[in-house]
Design goal:
It is built from two helices and four strands, in the order E-H-E-E-H-E. The protein is an alpha+beta fold. The chain starts with a strand and ends in a 13-residue tail after the last strand.
Length: 73
């Protein structure tokens, strides 16, 4: 189990699929277990289809593009 911040640091600029193990008062994930990670989003989507975890979070750990720029994943 790791904090979401630790997961973001460890898997920088990757897509991450996490089983959520703890949430804060606003129901946001704060701790979890990494199920899958990859620079290719499709890899984490495939893992999402196979997981039996009931509470998951899927996110990208890289920088969000500046307004006015487009990015294709």
């Amino acid at each position: 189990m790791a904090s979401i911040e630790q997961i973001k640091e460890r898997f920088k600029d990757e897509w991450v699929l996490v089983e959520v193990l703890e949430k804060d008062a606003l129901n946001q994930p704060v701790k979890g277990k990494v199920i899958a990670h990859s620079r290719d989003r499709d890899d984490t989507y495939d893992a999402m289809k196979k997981t039996k975890a009931k509470d998951i979070s899927h996110f990208y750990t890289g920088k969000i593009p500046i307004k006015g720029y487009a990015v294709a994943f």
